Amino acid sequence: MQSRIVSVLVTVLSLSILNAAEPAKFASGVVDIGMVAKDIQKTAKFYTEVVGLKEVKGFEAPAEKAKAFGLTDNQPAKVRVFVLGDAPNSTRLKIMSFPKRPGVAPDQKYIHSTLGLSYLTLRVADMDAALARLKKAKVKLLGQTPASLGGQLRITVFHDPDGNFVELIGPVK
Hints:
2,3-Dihydroxybiphenyl 1,2-Dioxygenase, domain 1, 2 domains, disordered N terminus
């Protein structure tokens, strides 16, 4: 009986210690997102001209480095980088393509169709302006969007050129 009580106490103390563990400390609150595109030119144009991101200096990883990092099977990576604006700590969308090994497109009919990252949510300052860019580019909106999220706040959902889901959330002006 006493050993059972000791065992229960040890389990409770172990769980308390595990639950009391401090969260990891991060150097930045910004998350960079990497995306592989079928046609990098088409995708870059979409994210700048249609969505409204700003392209900044990208970078390259030679095949040997990309392989050494465990990222590719000896394919070089040329990465184009896009930011949400002029904020110095803006989230970065890093887009690359691999013409020699183009990869396979996931099933993106619904956000639950494929495991992994499913969509980007971007907060816009003016949904009307965003919708005008989407209409000009003949982007098909999904579902019954734009839809109200209450008050002036709207959500608009669509696919990028590779079928990835993109949500825009922002006020109408």
